[in-house]
Design a protein that fits this description.
The protein is mainly β. The protein contains 1 helix and 8 strands; from the N terminus they run αββββββββ. The protein starts with 16 loop residues before the first helix and ends in a 6-residue tail after the last strand.
């Protein structure tokens, strides 16, 4: 029985592009916005961290800008881990080592990644590290300590909640970097001479 309304469908093998566009465009915009936020480093602490921290070390780290504030990372079990979020604008490392321990039926396994050294410098844009501690000899330019974290502007996308303690600085250089971290993210990571190993009872970074 005809209702008088057109119920034409595109012939088989063809696509109704108007309908497809109406469905796809919101998804495209959402992905684009997500990519933009990720590029700015704003999603650094948005994922659940693992149940163990890991080591990060470098003989020399330099950056055009530093921003930092205190926050809490959470693991899947809901447990909180207080960290100092360290945002670095354009980070350059002479070398880098990252290691973590994992318990397996075979014993304790050490996951280890190294890069840089003779192969060349390691670089990363908007590197963000959620660390428990940081050890090294540092030189800061134009330091601002005690600034409200919501007003930090040295590193794009790195801002905390209003009323939260924060600090930032201009160009920085840190020698003998050692840190225990819960997460690390960055855009355009370039790891020259990268080596990755997984071994039973292997050696950690420090």
């Amino acid at each position: 029985m005809s209702t008088g309304k057109s119920t034409q469908r595109p012939p088989e093998g063809r696509v109704d592009w108007k309908r497809t566009a109406a469905v796809a465009l919101p998804a495209v915009f959402a992905v684009g916005a997500l990519a933009m936020v990720m590029a700015q480093g704003a999603l650094a602490a948005s994922f659940a961290v693992s149940g163990t921290n890991f080591q990060v070390s470098s003989s020399k780290l330099s950056s055009k800008g530093l921003a930092s504030y205190v926050q809490t990372d959470r693991s899947v079990d809901g447990k909180g881990h207080p960290v100092a979020l360290l945002g670095l604008g354009e980070a350059t490392l002479s070398d880098i080592c990252q290691s973590a321990e994992a318990r397996t039926p075979l014993g304790t396994v050490v996951f280890k990644l190294t890069a840089g050294g003779p192969a060349g410098e390691v670089t990363a844009g908007n590197l963000v590290i959620d660390g428990e501690d940081l050890v090294g000899d540092a030189v800061f330019g134009t330091a601002e300590i005690g600034r409200d974290a919501s007003t930090l502007d040295r590193v794009d996308g790195v801002r905390g909640e209003p009323g939260t303690f924060g600090l930032q600085a201009g160009n920085i250089e840190v020698l003998g970097v050692r840190s225990h971290a819960w997460s690390a993210t960055g855009g355009n990571f370039r790891l020259k001479g990268m080596k990755l190993s997984v071994s039973l009872d292997g050696t950690k970074c420090f």
